[in-house]
C-alpha cells in the first residue's frame, strides 16, 4: 500500500497551474526537445539494442511521443528555431520549439511595434530638422483637409475610447474567469485533502481495533502505521503546496490585471488629452503627448502580441487537456506534469486496501460466530461465556471473497450502512462482572468495538476507489473535463478580448497621434491664412497654394 503515497502530492498540484504554467514557463529551464530525447551515445564495447532487434527506451519514447502528441494540428506553426519549418511536436511546455512556434504567432504585432517605433521616430527626427533648418512661413490651407482631419481625429479618438472599454472589460472578465478556474481546482484539491485525512483517521483507528481481545496481525498493524504516516504527510504537503500555488497565481493575476487597467487608463487619458489639446491649439502640449504616445504605442503593440501568444497558449492547453481526457493512457507531454501510475499499480493498491477490509470483516464475523452466537456452557471462562442468549446475531456482509474478488451478500447478512443499527437490538445489559443480565448476545463493550471495526472497514471500502482515482488520474481526468467544458471557452474568449482591446487602443491612438500633428498643422495654416486675408481684405480664406 505504500505505492499509493509518493505520487499523491504530484497528482493534483499541477492542475492548479497547468493553464498558467505554459505562459510562465521559461525555456531555459525546460527539458531538451523531443529530438534530443531520442539521441543516444554509442559507448565502445557496449551492445546496441537496436542491432539485436530490441528497441531502446530512447527510441520507444520518441515513437510514443510522435504517436501521442497533444493538439498536433492546432500547434502546427512555423518554428523560427528550426529554419521556419513547421513544428510537429504538439503541446509540450518542456520543448523550446513549442515556445518558439507559439511565440512566433505574435510576430505581426511585434513587427508593427518595431516599424512604428523606428519609422515614426525617423519622421519626428526629420520634422525637427526641417523645422529648425528649413523654417518657412505657412501660407494657404485646404478646407477639405482641415475638415477631414477634424472628423478623422474625432473618429479615431472614439475608437480609442471603445478600445479602452474592450480592454478594461476583457481584462476584468479574464481575471474573473481565471480566478474561478483556480478556485475550482483549489476546491478539488481541498476535497482530496479532506478525503486523505479521513483515510488517515480510519487507518489510525484500524491499528487499535480489537474485538473481544482479537485484533489484526502485528505485521498488518505495522504496515497500516507506515501507510498512515505517509498519507498524513501527503495530505499536509498537498494542502500547503495548494495554498502557496494559489497565492502565487493570484499575485500574478492581480499584477497583470492592474497593469492592464493602468494601460487602459493611460491610453484613454492620452487620447482624450491629445484631442482636447489639438482642438484648443495647445501645440507644445500636443507635441509632448506625441513623444509620450510614440513610446506607449510601441509598448502597447508589443503587449497585444504577448496576449495573442497567451491566447494561443490557453487554446493549446485546453485542446491538449481535452485530447488527453479522451485518451488518458497514452504517453504524452502531460506525463511529465501528471505522473499517473499504470493500471497494474493502481490495482495493487486497491487490492491491499481490500485485503485490510476483508480481514476486519472476517474478525467481526469470527467473533460473532465463535463467541456471540455460540452456545457456550457456563463453565467456560470469559470472554467466551457471558450468559449470551436470544436470537442469533446476523453476520456482516464481506464485500470480498478470499481472492478479493467482489462478493454478493448472502441472505440475512448486513451491509455497512445498517449493521450498527441492527446489532444494537442484540445488546444486553450487563452486571458488574460484564455478564448479561438480560437477553442478548453482545455486551456494550463488544458492540462498541464492533461499531469501530465496522466504521473503519466501511471507510477503507468507501475510499478505496478514491485512492485508485488518484493513482490512475481519474480525478485529474474529471477535473480536466470540467475545465475544458466549463472554463476553457471563457478563458479563450476573454484573453482574445484583451489582445483585441490592446490592438484597438494601439491602432486608434497611433492614428489619432498622426492626426494630432496633421490637425495642428492645418489649424496653424488656417490661422495664418485668416490673418493674411484680414490684412488684404480678402474673405476667401483658401486663397493661394498650400505650402508647408
Structure description:
Keywords: Membrane, Signal, Transmembrane, Transmembrane helix. This is Transmembrane protein. The chain crosses the membrane at residues 107-134, 146-168, 256-277, 284-310, 496-520. This protein is an all-alpha fold and 548 residues long. Helices cover 67% and strands 1% of the residues. The protein is built from 12 helices and 4 strands, in the order αααββαααββαααααα. The protein has helices at residues 8-24, 34-37, 57-67, 96-103, 107-133, 143-207, 218-280, 283-326, 343-372, 419-423, 444-471, 474-536, and strands at 78-79, 85-86, 210-211, 214-215. The strands form 2 sheets. It has a two-stranded antiparallel ribbon with strand order 1-2. A two-stranded antiparallel sheet has the order 3-4. Strand 3 (210-211) and strand 4 form a beta hairpin. The chain starts with 7 loop residues before the first helix and ends in a 12-residue tail after the last helix.
Report the span from N to C terminus.
Answer: 87 Å
What is the strand tally?
A: 4
| Major β-sheet annotation | 2 strands, antiparallel
* Structural shape: elongated
Which spans have pLDDT < 50 for at least 5 consecutive residues? 1-67, 539-548
Radius of gyration: 38 Å
Task: Please estimate the helix content.
Answer: 55-70%
Strand order of the largest sheet: 1-2
Which structural class fits the helix and strand makeup? mainly alpha
Please tally the helical runs, counting DSSP H or I stretches of 4 or more residues: 12
N to C succession of SSEs: HHHEEHHHEEHHHHHH
Could you report the average pLDDT, rounded to the nearest whole number?
A: 77
What is the chains' assembly state? Answer: single chain
Sheet-strand content, in percent, reads under 5%
Amino acid at each position: 500500500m505504500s505505492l499509493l503515497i509518493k505520487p499523491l502530492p504530484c497528482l493534483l498540484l499541477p492542475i492548479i497551474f497547468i493553464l498558467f504554467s505554459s505562459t510562465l514557463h521559461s525555456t531555459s529551464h525546460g527539458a531538451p526537445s523531443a529530438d534530443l530525447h531520442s539521441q543516444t551515445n554509442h559507448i565502445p564495447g557496449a551492445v546496441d539494442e537496436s542491432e539485436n532487434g530490441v528497441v531502446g527506451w530512447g527510441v520507444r519514447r520518441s515513437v510514443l511521443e510522435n504517436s501521442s502528441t497533444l493538439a498536433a494540428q492546432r500547434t502546427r506553426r512555423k518554428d523560427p528555431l528550426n529554419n521556419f519549418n513547421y513544428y510537429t511536436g504538439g503541446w509540450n511546455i518542456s520543448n523550446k520549439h513549442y515556445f518558439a512556434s507559439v511565440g512566433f504567432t505574435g510576430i505581426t504585432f511585434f513587427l508593427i511595434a518595431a516599424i512604428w517605433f523606428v519609422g515614426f521616430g525617423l519622421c519626428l527626427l526629420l520634422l525637427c530638422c526641417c523645422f529648425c533648418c528649413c523654417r518657412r512661413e505657412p501660407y494657404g490651407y485646404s478646407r477639405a483637409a482641415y475638415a477631414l482631419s477634424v472628423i478623422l481625429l474625432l473618429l479615431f479618438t472614439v475608437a480609442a475610447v471603445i478600445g479602452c472599454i474592450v480592454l478594461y472589460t476583457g481584462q476584468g472578465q479574464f481575471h474573473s474567469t481565471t480566478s474561478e478556474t483556480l478556485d475550482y481546482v483549489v476546491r478539488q484539491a481541498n476535497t482530496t485533502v479532506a478525503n486523505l485525512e479521513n483515510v488517515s483517521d480510519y487507518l489510525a483507528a484500524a491499528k487499535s481495533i480489537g474485538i473481544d481481545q482479537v485484533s489484526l496481525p502485528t505485521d498488518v498493524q505495522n504496515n497500516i502505521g507506515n501507510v498512515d504516516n505517509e498519507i498524513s504527510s501527503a495530505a499536509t504537503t498537498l494542502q500547503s503546496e495548494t495554498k502557496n500555488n494559489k497565492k502565487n497565481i493570484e499575485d500574478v493575476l492581480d499584477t497583470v490585471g492592474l497593469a492592464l487597467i493602468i494601460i487602459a487608463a493611460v491610453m484613454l487619458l492620452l487620447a482624450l488629452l491629445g484631442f482636447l489639446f489639438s482642438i484648443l491649439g495647445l501645440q507644445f502640449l500636443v507635441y509632448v503627448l506625441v513623444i509620450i504616445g510614440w513610446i506607449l504605442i510601441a509598448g502597447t503593440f508589443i503587449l497585444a502580441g504577448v496576449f495573442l501568444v497567451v491566447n494561443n497558449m490557453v487554446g493549446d492547453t485546453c485542446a491538449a487537456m481535452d485530447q488527453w481526457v479522451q485518451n488518458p493512457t497514452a504517453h504524452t507531454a502531460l506525463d511529465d506534469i501528471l505522473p499517473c501510475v499504470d493500471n497494474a499499480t493502481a490495482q495493487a493498491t486497491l487490492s491491499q486496501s481490500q485485503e485490510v477490509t476483508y480481514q476486519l470483516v472476517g474478525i467481526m464475523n469470527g467473533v460473532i460466530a465463535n463467541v456471540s452466537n455460540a452456545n457456550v456452557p457456563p463453565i467456560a471462562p470469559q470472554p467466551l461465556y457471558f450468559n449470551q442468549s436470544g436470537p442469533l446475531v446476523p453476520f456482516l456482509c464481506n464485500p470480498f471473497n478470499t481472492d478479493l474478488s467482489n462478493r454478493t451478500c448472502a441472505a440475512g447478512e448486513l451491509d455497512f450502512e445498517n449493521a450498527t443499527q441492527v446489532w444494537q437490538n442484540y445488546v444486553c445489559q450487563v452486571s458488574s462482572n460484564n455478564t448479561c443480565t438480560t437477553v442478548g448476545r453482545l455486551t456494550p463493550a463488544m458492540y462498541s468495538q464492533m461499531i469501530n471495526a465496522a466504521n473503519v472497514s466501511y471507510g477503507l471500502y468507501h475510499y478505496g476507489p478514491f485512492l485508485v482515482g488518484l493513482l490512475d488520474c481519474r480525478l485529474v481526468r474529471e477535473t480536466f473535463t470540467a475545465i475544458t467544458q466549463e472554463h476553457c471557452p471563457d478563458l479563450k474568449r476573454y484573453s482574445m478580448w484583451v489582445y483585441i482591446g490592446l490592438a484597438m487602443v494601439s491602432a486608434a491612438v497611433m492614428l489619432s497621434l498622426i492626426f494630432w500633428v496633421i490637425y495642428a498643422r492645418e489649424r496653424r495654416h488656417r490661422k495664418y491664412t485668416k490673418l493674411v486675408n484680414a490684412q488684404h481684405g480678402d474673405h476667401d480664406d483658401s486663397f493661394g497654394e498650400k505650402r508647408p
